[in-house]
């Protein structure tokens, strides 16, 4: 009896996802993992924000003038807070992603957007406080030249742990929340490692360049203005992004204007490089009324608060100078009285009559 030719039984295409079914049944996964622009952009944006936050705190600490022991201890605290928060973010991501993957559920999109919006608003407030305190910590406000170290000493270990830890945890947790839908679909999950690595590399490179520029700035006034402006701009972008998340849930306002090109693939799109680098600072290809209003209102509020901080410091400096002038005058008068008394007194202590 002749041998029966082997028959192939291809897997029914209705059991496959549309992506895999379109590629055929030869392999469940593509031979080469594709790259995903959204994963790359999101990873790049969050890592860039994290690098800017860590870099700004390191610059303030290194310019504090509080001595090597304080500087080394504070720098260790920064890296400790960043490492612990990154681990906690990874644990939270796994605790959410694994049950969803096993149960075949999906993360509620509305809840995820609201959580992300709240976290961005809280982060905007924290970064705004950093922007307002930088001039004092660097001792460039009126009357603060000799109290730079005392102002930087407000960055206690607890303050560093909270500010650095919260912001790094938030950045990495946002990446995880964004990637959860990819983990639930194997045909999409294969693009995560390569795309995420590219996004992280770009974010680290740009963040490193910004940190080097800040580090090489030798003039304290220029450094304070640059750091305050950069952190204030980042705070504005975070606040705008948080408000826009709420807008996506409860309905978007009208578009004010639209940049040239396609919103998803054009040069001016905030979803792809290079303009994706400006997304953390509030940039949008087609900003809505809410985006424009919140951007300029938050930026104006920060400018007003900086001006009030300057005026308050100047008022205190003027009062201190006035008190010092009065004290000097009183001291000079007391010295003159003592000199007159000495001239009218004999060495034996007898008063000379004139």
List the helices and strands and how they pair.
Layout: H1 18-23, H2 37-62, H3 68-103, H4 109-137, H5 148-152, H6 157-183, H7 186-189, H8 192-216, H9 220-250, H10 289-343
Strand-pairing-aware structural class: mainly alpha
- Average pLDDT reading: 75
Report the oligomer: single chain
Shape: elongated
Q: What's the alpha carbon Rg, rounded to whole Å?
A: 30 Å
Helix content: 55-70%
Tell me the major beta sheet. none
Compressed to H and E, one letter per element, the order equals HHHHHHHHHH
Low-confidence region ranges = 4-33, 146-150
Number of helices: 10
Whole-number tally of structural domains: 1
Keywords:
354 residues, mainly alpha, 10 helices, elongated
Describe the structure.
By secondary structure, the chain is mainly alpha-helical. It has one domain (34-323). Helices cover 69% and strands 0% of the residues. It has ten helices and no strands. The protein has helices at 18-23, 37-62, 68-103, 109-137, 148-152, 157-183, 186-189, 192-216, 220-250, 289-343. Helix 2 runs antiparallel to helix 3 (68-103), helix 2 runs parallel beside helix 8 (192-216) and helix 4 packs antiparallel against helix 6. The protein is elongated, with a radius of gyration of 30 Å. The termini are far apart. Residues 4-33 and 146-150 have low confidence and may be disordered.
